[in-house]
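Hello again, I could really use a second opinion on something today. Take your time with it, there's no hurry, and the full record follows here:

___
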Amino acid sequence: MKVNLSLKWKLIIFYFFLGMLPLILISYYSSYIASKSINEITEKQINELITGISNQIVSTYDKMKGDIFQMADNPMIQLSFLQFKYGQRMNLVRDKLALYRSNNKFYERITLFTGDGEPVLTVPSIYKNLYKHVDKLFLREIFNYDFYLKEDLEGEKFLVMIKRVYDFEDNTLPVGLLVFEIPAKKVLEYFINLDLGYSVLKVVENTDKKIIYKTPITNDMANSKFKIYQGEVSFLNWVIKLGIPEHVLFKDVYKLRNKSLLFSFIVSFIAFIVALYFVQRFLKPIKEIIYGTEKFSHGDFDYEIKLKSGKELKVLAEAINKMSKRLQKRQNELIQANKLASLGLLAAGIAHEVKNPLAGIRATVQLMHKKSRDENLKNMAENVINEIDRLNKIVNDLLQFSKPDEIHKERCYLGDVIEKSINLVRKKIEEKKISVLKSVEDSYVIVDCDHLLHIIINILLNSISAVEEGKGEIKILGRVSGSKYVLEIIDNGVGIPEDKIEHVFDPFFSLKEDGTGLGLSIVYTLMQKNGIKYDIKSKRGEGTVLKLIFEDFVNEKHSDS
């Protein structure tokens, strides 16, 4: 179903989609960008922190590994496996291990086992749960390895380091195993004690996803959505994970987003009210434009749209006013063309019917003039002959108007045509002592040369008749203007009244008492046939400017050869 909305509602919908909606989207987008920026900065900082934690754990691991390797190479430990059966000096070894253990916070138990998994001694000396993290079968299998690390992640998490001990005198002969039992929390003590905030989730797990350490979940954390960052601990194949609650990480962003949205809604509401006001103001000149176009559509081209506000709408109104003037001009041209067509048919008929009788009358009057001896009669006959000649000229003009010559377009050098035109009317120019100024840029125009000569002669004759004797000036100026060639014929004559300019090319319209009004009509017909456009400007008492505009021309110098 097609909905036909008014311009008012279209503007309101346009405002919503291109005003209010983008403002809201910008608020969301700005909060998204801020969140992304904070996330990137936080991720960089967390990754650096995880790298530091990883390095600390690896450093602790390397120290413990160094301790067990150093202790396994201790002669006292090596000799213990040979002397334990006899009890010689075993108490001294136990005391040394107890002191070592008390000075190192990492080791829960240090035990010496034979290759068969039998205990030699243990510190502390309580043998309860001796095989909690390792059993005899496991120890027998591990005896084949120089070093082994076992993770016991059931219940309380422990790491078990096992190093093979060699004979004191033969370092290729294994004699037993040295075992360190280390609580995982001791290895992760730095990480566990690191203060990252009450709500930060800290997790360490191995590659099998078994948890080595995890922060106890509080009620606040249970309902939170976490942003997880992670990194690996080299050598141990552990993964460290840090989870930061999003409501903590993006707390300021959420505040900014909420404030931005509130601001957007307030601004949008105010803008909506203002928009309604301006829509009403905007519609008023539009209605005036619509009214004006309706007037133009009914043929009232004299109506003019006048707006007091709105720069763009003023430009639109002026454009429509200009369009109406051009339409009026085109309408007048069509009327002119119809007039010429109708009058051409009429003129052809009249000229045909009148020409032959006039010839007979003239021959008869000439015979009377020749044979008469009465001087008064002769004078009367001579006057009749002059009037017949004038009628013949009118008839010839009518014939020229109704059936102009066939057109033969060719390259015409303007300078030659203008010079020839001036020469043909030079007698009249000299009789009225008229000053003629010619400045024509070299160019060829593509027209019928005889037609162009006829056009220029008729225009010059009109200029000559319009100027005052002894003070008359006629300028003929030609130049290339963009893609056109413009020929101007300017006189300082009496000019044409503004209300008469549009009629100068009408048949039988003349401002001269003895004019036939056909000269410029013939000029108009010839211009139309040759594709010559024109522009005429005149003011009473200031002269006339007639421009001939040629679109088909060749701008090159004329060669006399």
About this structure: The longest strand covers residues 174-183. The CA atoms of residues 11 and 148 lie 78 Å apart. The chain has a mean pLDDT of 78.
